[in-house]
Here is the input.
Amino acid sequence: MSDVISYSTSGPVAILRIQNPPVNALSQAVRQGLSEAMDRAEADVEIKAVLIVGEGRAFIAGADITEFGKPPMEPNLPDLCTRIEASPLVVIASMHGVTLGGGLEVALGAHYRIAQPTARVGLPEVHLGLLPGAGGTQRLPRLTGAEKAIEAVTSGRQIKADEAREMGIIDKIEEGDPQEVGVAYAMDLISSGAPRRAISEMAAPSSIDWDATYDGVMKKGRGQISGGAGVRAVQAASELSFADGMAAERKLFTEMLASDQSKGMIHAFFNERAVSNLPELKGVAPRALQSIGVIGGGTMGAGIATAALLAQMEVVLIETGEAQAAAARGRIEGSLSGALKRGKISQSQHDALVTSALTVAVNYDSLSTVDLVIEAVFEDMAVKKEVFGKLDAVCKPGAILASNTSYLDVDEIAAATSRPADVIGLHFFSPAHIMKLLEVVVADKTAIDVVATGFELGKRLGKISVRAGVCDGFIGNRILAHYRTAADHMVLDGASPYQIDRALTDFGFAMGPFAVADLAGLDIGWMTRKRKAAGRHPDERVPTYIDKLCEEGHFGRKTGEGYYLYEAGSHASVPNPKIPVLIADEQAALEITPRDFSDEEIVTRYMCAMVNEAAKVVEEGIARRPADVDMVLLFGYGFPRFRGGPLKWADLQGLDKVLANIERFAQEDAWFWKPSALLEQLVTSGRSFDDLNRAQAK
Here is the structure.
């Protein structure tokens, strides 16, 4: 018998216990062991029922991700589920923890399902650009109906036990040891003469408006195709025999597995976990991290404070005056109330956070005992240096001094203190208690245990933490500035900001660059252009038409007018009629004859600019590896997850094709489109960005 499946009996019940820590993933050994254990149970004339149960913290959490991309090994999962379901014995799955993906498909292959009250089930394959491929789209709708099955398959969400029972997925909920309650349930079924109950033999789900459902799922997915494939698979369950439906599901699954979208999403799945594991931090203990200070209680500072409070940390927030302090407390309490309403914290936890864990003060001396301080003040070097000088004077020895700067030189900030080894950049994204990305910016003199503490903070806050070096904008904002400039150039040359926004949302971005600029505030870009004007390269093209809007006091959504117009209290927007006039005036002044752009050219130029600058960021060591760039763009900048990130996208396009486009664009603007030396080297050597990722992982 397999080492990962233990076989025992309790009277007429054979117990198949899965022992594949940490989460009983469905490796080849597990699949083979379950199949062999079923054979053994059926060969024993004393056995009337089979109980499948998981050891440890889960029933089965899904497929074995280490097998992704490798040749399939027998028995495959669809055959195992069919083999379990076809048993002449009564088969019961006793579920606890999570039962996800292939794990739920195994459970659906059983004839009855019992679960712990805290159990959760789901089919999350859509998050890998896939759909269930072992009967999930054929069996589930026979229990739940088509609409509920489609929602489960296309959302990939985890469903709590109570809801799963209401949907018909779970037959019984009972608290206790999963094996003990499972055996008792099996004995009840045997004594009552309960029959085998194969889902494949149940009635097919009723028909719905399949095309409308498909269109709705595709629209919601903003270009991701696996959700639509899931709808068509459930449609097959309704319209075809079970065997033909299984064949249709498998065909769709195979198509999705071979798609670039699945490759992109699998890349994202692996690397969002890998980017925080830095080899140089192995064995390095972080410093104490129980209490933090936050300087500034605006949107960013309040968000950082809220995130820390929700992570059970003590927070001291400093504002410049009593009125500002009261406003900051109000922002934080509002966010915590939202967490309470969503069930993230209990009422008692909420009350403790706002009464004892949070201190709002106006005196820097209140920071004398905190372990780490994060400043979130105005993005001005003189202001930052003044704050760090004060922190240097009041913070205890060993306290970490962190800047939330988006662009500024962390080395210069550190030099304003007597303890540069204790200084680090922690670049949060707003709203900080919601956005997942944290850039950990390591300055020249930052101590290694300070770096470790930065990553430990990110872990406690539930962030995707990425190491960044010091340069203007670090990883994300440096690349953003470049691809946003490419968009600005296209506007000067004839493309409408609104066509660009539409083309890029069709590509999969949550928002286009001009809508994003309105949301962030046009004054940010305006201020950056003024800051960088003195050192600007003479060949750089810098559109100034939007500055005229800023000079009139219009900064986007927060003032009601930007590239779009915003009604009070509304996120809905319409194009601002002033913008085409301002653009036309600048085109005339620069003697530019505007031309038409296709959506395809817009996407190509935008993406090539992003890839070229991203390659330079890796080339210079600002990002350690290409996957770091991909995760920054995915989690901080709305890059479509199903494309994996800009450098994964480039690999999938073919680096030679991307470089050829960049070289073609360079004939128009040699300074802006100068190809990355790293990109040229990779093309010459026939290597990819993924090759660099694998080399770094060794």
Notes: The first strand starts at residue 5 and ends at 10. The chain has three domains: 5-262, 289-468, 476-697. The mean pLDDT is 95. Residues 599-619 form the longest helix (21 residues).
